[in-house]
Structures are given as structure tokens and as C-alpha cells.
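Data deposition worksheet. Section B asks for the primary sequence of the deposited chain exactly as it was used as input, without tags or linkers unless they were present during the calculation. Section C holds the resulting structure in C-alpha cell form. Section D is free text for depositor observations; keep each observation to a single sentence. Incomplete worksheets are returned to the depositor.
Section A, Depositor: J.P.
Section B:
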Amino acid sequence: MRCPKCTSIEDKVIDSRISKEGSTIRRRRECLECGHRYTTTEMFVREGLVVVKRDGRREDFDREKLFRAIRAALHKRPVDREQLDMLIEDVIDALEAQYENEIPSQAVGDAVMQRLRKLDQVAYVRFASVYKEFRDVSEFMHEISSLGKNHPEKH
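Section C:
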């Protein structure tokens, strides 16, 4: 790893922690040149996953694309980076368990919506509006009213 401050490649690992799912490792490092401390995350390299689009096109699974879409839905919401990373890993793990190498794009969207609905309902509606291609306000209202039916308000 290169130090983000001085770009030296000489460092030492101070602490390592395995995620709850066991799919990532967070490492706290210290640069031996300048003493700067920084955190890195290691994760499994997932190879061979292909997303099958609605029109039949196939493209390599792109974790970063998924990250950007969910992060956009979570913009200015009280969800931290670790929760976002855990949500993404949970989605990927569930999809890998259900499908071999080809994952329908609809399954990706459904898995994200299912988890966002539990994590943050505003982000859920934002994501759903793009994923389901809402055409007017009535579709927003319908989706929002369905949230209240499935999850009673907390007082």
C-alpha cells in the first residue's frame, strides 16, 4: 500500500478486523516514513459475475457502479460508509448464493430495494423512483403509501 500522504510503500499493520460476514478485512496501517495512519479495506475479488440486462445485453458486474447508485439514493441521509459497504456485500453475497455466474439486473435492483427499505425509507423511495422508472407523482405516492402499510410508524 502507498501512504496517501507521502506515497511511501513502507508501512506496518497496526490492527486488523474481519467484517461480520467475513468477506472483508479492515486494516489500520502506519507509514514507516512519515508516521501517517490510514485505513485500508481488503475484500474478495469476485470474478466472472455477469449482469443480464432487461434487453438481453450482458455486462460484467461492476461493484463500483452499484456503489454509486446506492450512494446517490443515500445522499445526505444518516447512513455511514460502513453501512453502505455492508449493504453492498450483503446484496452480492445473496445474489451469488442464488445465481451462478449470470445475474438478472432485476434481481440486483430487487435485492438493493429490499435492503434499502429496511435501512432508510427515503433512500428506498429515491432508488425505487429510478429503478422502477416512475413517470409521475402518483407513482411516488403509491410507493410511499405502501411503506406505511408494511411498516407501522414508530413513535
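Section D:
The radius of gyration is 19 Å.
The first helix runs from residue 63 to 73.
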